[in-house]
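Inverse folding, one chain.
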């Protein structure tokens, strides 16, 4: 029996980023088949009646605890983690781009976009940044950014 893991993610989520750094090892260790499922975290929050950024409703102590927790997990996983300026950024474009991809290309793009946001602090809401990230991993950034605006890709993410 082949195990399957569905990984629902948005590049704006730090815990999903940290989990993504462990996916390759999980697949090797378990023999599981991995399915990457791009979502819009803000859209999910709205669906359940939550604000787009729950951090705004947290006390300073809870926010500080959350940052320490993230730092501990990053250290444990050996993953770079730098809180991006103006976090959380809007991720509609990168998540649409990821929805337009499949298989190994989706995996490479996910890792590259996570690294751009969480390791390098780049603004993945900026089409030029997304284009550059995709170009750097040998994907056609301009074509994928353009394709992200099609009805087909919009529907795939919804």
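Residues assigned per position:
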């Amino acid at each position: 029996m082949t195990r399957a893991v569905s990984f629902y993610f948005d590049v704006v989520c730090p815990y999903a980023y940290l989990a993504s750094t462990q996916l390759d090892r999980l697949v090797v260790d378990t023999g599981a088949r991995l399915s990457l499922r791009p979502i819009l975290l803000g859209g999910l929050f709205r669906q359940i009646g939550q604000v787009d950024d729950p951090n705004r409703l947290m006390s300073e102590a809870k926010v500080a605890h959350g940052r320490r927790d993230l730092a501990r997990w990053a250290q444990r996983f050996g993953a770079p983690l730098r809180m991006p300026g103006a976090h959380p950024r809007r991720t509609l474009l990168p998540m649409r781009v990821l929805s337009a991809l499949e298989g190994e290309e989706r995996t490479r793009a996910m890792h590259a976009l996570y690294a751009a946001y969480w390791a390098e602090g780049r603004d993945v809401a900026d089409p030029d940044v997304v284009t550059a990230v995709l170009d750097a991993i040998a994907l056609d950034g301009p074509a994928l950014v353009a394709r992200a605006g099609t009805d087909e890709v919009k529907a795939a993410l919804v």
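The radius of gyration is 16 Å. The CA atoms of residues 12 and 87 lie 8 Å apart.
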